[in-house]
Amino acid sequence: MISADQSEELAAKVTEARDSGNPLVIMGGNTRAWLGNAPEADFPTLSVAGHRGVIDYQPEELVIRVRAGTPLTEVVSLLAANQQYLPFEPPAFGSESTIGGVIATGLSGPGRPFRGAVRDHVLGATIISGAGECLSFGGQVMKNVAGYDVSRLMAGSYGVLGVLLDVSLKVLPVPQATVTLAVPLSVQAAHARMPGLSMIPEVSALAWYNGQLLVRYSGTEQAMARIRSTADGELAEDHIWAQIRDLSLPEIAAADVLWRISIKPSASDLLGETCLLDWCGGLRWIVPAEAMTDVRAGLSQGEAMIFRGSTETKQRFGTFHPMAPVPARLNLALKKRFDPAGILNPGRLFEEA
């Protein structure tokens, strides 16, 4: 595994941008650049891809500290060699996906309702603020909660608060065994079954796709043998969860426009339009029949994001769900605090005017 500390060079470039007033587009492996709002202009790129390597890994402590430019695949392989994994199951949109991109976009996989989101596993972080300062928050052990909330702000911040240098993450042991069962059901029937299934201790993921309710069970070999002999459904391949995680299922992967709906799991909004139901019903992926369809019009609660779409589509409807006044003010206040000159990924997450 390649290891290189470029923190001083990166801080110098941010300081130069601050002094000149020229904004920067922060980039890692360039596998998630299409997420969020497009850059407001053709700004220079600040690449963190060369700032990589594991700083500290203590398998017995279930903690890993890694630089932001480290490829996700390398971290996953290292953990797997020690029978451990990232519990939030981050998607990999290419072999060049980096840990920095994972944290910045804050996306979690199918196990999120049972194991927690990205932010729940961030124990500490080091960033370069928009003022060019290197700031460290949190710690490297699970019992250290000092600055914990500030570290968690980095998850899903799209780089607008700081350039992530490194992050400490909580990891977990890989389950002894996993079983996936598929039950033929309509999306409405599957949705109705999910609350009861989610209460079963061994259930670690619940989804619906292509006319099938998919249930993942994880645990001991003995428990999985019992599940195979008593639970409803036909055995399915476990790799379906990687396809759900990475959005590589045929209908999803081929979509020019893809909406991501985050909603209360029990809500019935847009069930009929959903092509992939995940997170026990709390995450819904919709491929509209017409690109210029305002999916938010059919939503009475929750939030809808244009996950994938043309610049025209994003500009017409807004990439992210409109924020209420109070959260909008808080976001702007945080941006001003961490990036007073507004040079880091301006406009990527919200309007900053």
Task: Identify the notable features of this structure and list them briefly.
8-stranded antiparallel beta sheet, 11 helices, 5-stranded antiparallel beta sheet, alpha+beta, Uridine Diphospho-n-acetylenolpyruvylglucosamine Reductase, domain 3, 17 strands, about 25% helix, Alpha-Beta Plaits, about 350 residues
How would you describe this protein?
- The protein has three domains: 7-173, Uridine Diphospho-n-acetylenolpyruvylglucosamine Reductase, domain 3 (2-Layer Sandwich); 175-246, Alpha-Beta Plaits (2-Layer Sandwich), CATH 3.30.70; 252-314.
- Helix content is 27%, strand content 24%.
- The protein has eleven helices and 17 strands.
- The chain is globular.
- The model is unreliable at 141-148 (pLDDT under 50).
CATH architecture annotation name of the largest domain: 2-Layer Sandwich
Q: What is the domain total for the residues?
A: 3
User: So what's the CATH class of the largest domain?
Assistant: Alpha Beta
One letter per element, helices H and strands E, the order comes to: HEEEEHEHHEEHEEEHEEHEHHEEEEHH
Q: Let me know the average pLDDT.
A: 95
Strand content: 15-25%
Largest sheet: 8 strands, antiparallel
Give the helix tally.
Answer: 11
Overall SS class? alpha+beta
> Could you say what the CATH topology of the largest domain is called?
Uridine Diphospho-n-acetylenolpyruvylglucosamine Reductase, domain 3
Helix percentage range: 25-40%
- Which spans have pLDDT < 50 for at least 5 consecutive residues? 141-148
Strand order of the largest sheet: 13-10-12-11-15-16-14-17
Q: How many β-strands, per DSSP?
A: 17
Shape: globular
Determine Rg (CA atoms, Å): 21 Å
Please give the oligomerization state of what you see. single chain
Tell me the distance between the termini.
42 Å
